[in-house]
């Protein structure tokens, strides 16, 4: 079955109103392939501004949220709040959340489950560190991270997996198309075996880690790469080329 190509931009903690206007203009001018679903991950404080100013054909995502609808959790935002301002997606489990803010597999799985219950769609990030890759543990790690989520959710139709090797994020060191394909294929097989074949065949798996306008086409040509999650290059005009990588 067809898996629609899906490209996310993760702005991280970057951008001000001036730069965001420039990015919005770039996205509006495109042209963006109608065959690609485009989602921009925006700092929380600018979510409503970006949602209001982008055409509805471009989706907007929060970069994080908490695991309950409301309450005494100073500084957090909930999926209900994200939905309330017309935003439909959230990125969860990014390696910066895992590594800098100490988020565990368990917490990320709880957040994914609650975000889905609240009606958001989720980009769930997984990926191994350099040490884990060099120790031959890549599959063990990404399967463990995925299994934690699988323990808390049943319906995967609103989930996109982003496989982002930590050693490739923001380093300029991209996984080769073969390295990425190998992990994507193993993940799809994991879903077939541990969830079911329908989910395995239909779930979209993005690659993330130093994707650029120059390397995106070769990565996009791999059979199990269904899109990208893009950090640095999502702030630049070349993001348009990445969106169109599969054309
Ligand atoms: C990311 O932040 O998810 C990412 C992949 O960053 P970059 O593209 O800059 O490596």
Strand content: 15-25%
Q: Provide the succession of SSEs.
A: EHEHEHEHHEHHEHHEHEH
Give me the number of helical elements. 11
Q: Would you identify the regions where 5 or more consecutive residues have pLDDT less than 50?
A: none
Ligands present? phosphoenolpyruvate
The rounded Rg comes to: 17 Å
Largest sheet: 8 strands, parallel, barrel
Return the average pLDDT rounded to an integer. 97
The computed structural class is alpha/beta
- CATH class division: Alpha Beta
Straight-line distance between termini: 18 Å
Helix coverage percent of residues?
25-40%
Under CATH, the homologous superfamily reads Aldolase class I
The backbone outline, from C-alpha atoms, is globular
CATH architecture, by name, is Alpha-Beta Barrel
Number of strands: 8
Strand order of the largest sheet: 1-2-3-4-5-6-7-8
Organism: Tribolium castaneum
Protein name: Triosephosphate isomerase
Catalytic activity: D-glyceraldehyde 3-phosphate = dihydroxyacetone phosphate
EC number: 5.3.1.1
Question: What would you say this structure looks like, in words?
Answer:
By secondary structure, the chain is of the alpha/beta class. It has a single domain, classed as TIM Barrel. The protein is built from eleven helices and eight strands. The chain has an eight-stranded parallel beta barrel, surrounded by four helices. β1 (5-10), α1 (17-29) and β2 form a beta-alpha-beta unit. α5 packs across α7 (138-150) and α7 packs across α8. It is globular, with a radius of gyration of 17 Å. The two termini are 18 Å apart. The model has no long low-confidence stretch (mean pLDDT 97). Phosphoenolpyruvate binds at residues 10, 12, 164, 169-170, 208-211, 229-233.
């Amino acid at each position: 079955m067809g898996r629609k190509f899906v490209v996310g931009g993760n702005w991280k903690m970057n951008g001000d109103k001036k730069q965001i206007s420039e990015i919005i203009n770039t996205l509006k001018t495109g042209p963006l392939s109608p065959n690609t679903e485009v989602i921009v991950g925006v700092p929380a404080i600018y979510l409503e501004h970006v949602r209001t100013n982008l055409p509805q054909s471009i989706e907007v995502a929060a970069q994080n949220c908490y695991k309950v609808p409301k309450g005494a959790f100073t500084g957090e935002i909930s999926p209900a709040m994200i939905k309330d301002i017309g935003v439909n997606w959230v990125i969860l489990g990014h390696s910066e959340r895992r590594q800098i803010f100490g988020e565990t597999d368990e917490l990320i799985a709880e957040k994914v489950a609650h975000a889905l219950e609240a009606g958001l769609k989720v980009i769930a990030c997984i990926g191994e560190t350099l040490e884990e890759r060099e120790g031959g543990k890549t599959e063990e790690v990404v399967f463990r991270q995925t299994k934690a989520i699988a323990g808390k959710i049943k319906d995967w139709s609103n989930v996109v997996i982003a496989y982002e090797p930590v050693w490739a994020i923001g380093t300029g060191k991209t996984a080769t198309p073969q390295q990425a394909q190998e992990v994507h294929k193993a993940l799809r097989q994991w879903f077939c075996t541990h969830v079911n074949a329908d989910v395995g065949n239909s779930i979209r798996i993005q690659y993330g880690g130093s994707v650029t306008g120059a390397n995106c086409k070769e990565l996009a040509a791999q059979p199990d790469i269904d899109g990208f999650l893009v950090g640095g290059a999502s702030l630049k005009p070349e993001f348009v080329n990445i969106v169109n990588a599969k054309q």
